[in-house]
Write a structure and sequence with these properties.
The protein is an alpha+beta fold and about 325 residues long. About 15% of the residues lie in helices and about 20% in strands. About 15% of the residues have low confidence. Bound molecules: ligand MTE and molybdenum atom.
């Protein structure tokens, strides 16, 4: 794959240079072919809910970290991955304003008794929003401590009835080329879809997040609603979700399709299992200079290791 690399190594050092140049050229050609218009870049919709609006009082949670300070908001909004808006870490901050987050709904289908569609306004009323301060770790080697606002995924199960066949849950991101210009370029299998086991989804640490730092979700971080699974690499946390599908069989996902040797289905943070092209033993917190050691399950081993009892985690990476 050509778009993943530890953030502190110049991309040109680790990506086949010919390949890299070819991609750059391709994107440049598209841009030259008609500027933003060719990529369908639209302007923001004034009817959007305002990202950055206060969420008011949030419930505190015993699942929050208490001993680590939050990464500055600016680092978390200014540097990240949201490939629908471009291949660079700065692309989401530059281009995600094109995302229209109202009207918005999530369709829940697959192995459920009755498929249902929920409007975001109703989803926001499902449960009191909790603050969950979590350690987050990107597969590329950067990490952050983020105070999310959201509710446990299990709230969804009070509103839909999965059948006995439901074993996995897929999370699908919006894929609209008018708003997300880079979905016109097939460098990933759009729409972005990641999946986890149903029991992982039901673990109390797994949340659907609608905000961060006490405010509604910034568009570049996955407004209006995204998945957060703090013991897995960040790419499992699909942003801007429009569909949740329950399935029986372990699915191929965007990242297992992109590079099955590099991105396993489980993608639990594991300092002992290197990525094909780099070590996972250390990480750098956004805004910090020195690296720190990466912890098994991103520091959540005590809570989640039992989900994987008896599994060979080198094989199921
Ligand atoms: N739809 C979508 N979701 C996505 C991504 C993406 O490119 N598209 N990137 C993932 C990756 S690789 C990471 S590390 C996290 C980053 O989330 P953050 O920008 O809120 O830190 O989002 C994940 N969710
Ligand atoms: Mo990532």
């Amino acid at each position: 794959m050509l778009i993943r690399h530890p953030h502190d190594i110049p991309p040109s050092d680790i990506t086949d240079p010919a390949h890299y140049a070819a991609r750059r050229k391709f994107i440049q050609t598209l841009l030259l072919a008609g500027g933003a218009g060719a990529l369908g870049m639209a302007h923001g919709n004034p009817l959007d809910s305002v990202p950055g609006a206060s969420l008011g009082k949030l419930q505190s949670s015993p699942l929050s970290l208490t001993d680590e300070k939050a990464t500055p908001l600016k680092s978390v909004t200014g540097y990240g991955n949201f490939y629908e808006f471009g291949p660079d870490k700065e692309s989401p901050a530059k281009h995600a304003h094109r995302l229209r987050t109202r009207p918005w709904s999530i369709t829940v289908d697959g192995e459920v008794k009755t498929a249902k569609t929920f409007a975001i306004e109703d989803i926001l009323k499902w449960a009191p929003l909790e603050e969950r301060i979590y350690r987050m770790r990107c597969v590329e080697g950067w990490s952050a401590v983020i105070p999310w606002a959201g509710f446990p995924f299990s709230e969804l199960l009070k509103r839909v009835e999965p059948t006995g066949n439901a074993k996995f849950v897929e999370f699908w991101t919006l894929s609209d080329p008018e708003q997300m210009p880079f979905t016109r370029i097939p460098f990933l299998d759009w729409p972005y879809m990641e999946a986890i086991r149903l029991d992982e989804a039901l673990h109390p640490l797994t949340i659907l997040a609608v905000g961060m730092y006490g405010e509604t979700m910034p568009k570049q971080n996955g407004a209006p609603i995204r998945l957060v699974v703090p013991w897995k690499y960040g790419f499992k946390g699909a942003k801007s979700i429009v569909r949740i599908r329950f399935v029986e069989k372990q699915p191929e996902t965007t990242w297992t399709k992109a590079g099955p040797e590099e991105y396993g289905f489980y993608s639990n943070v594991n300092p002992d299992v290197p990525h094909r092209r780099w070590s996972q033993s250390h990480e750098r917190r956004l805004g910090e200079f020195f690296k720190r050691k990466t912890l098994p399950f991103n520091g959540y081993a005590e809570q989640v290791a039992s989900l994987y009892a008896g599994m060979d985690l080198r094989k199921h990476f």
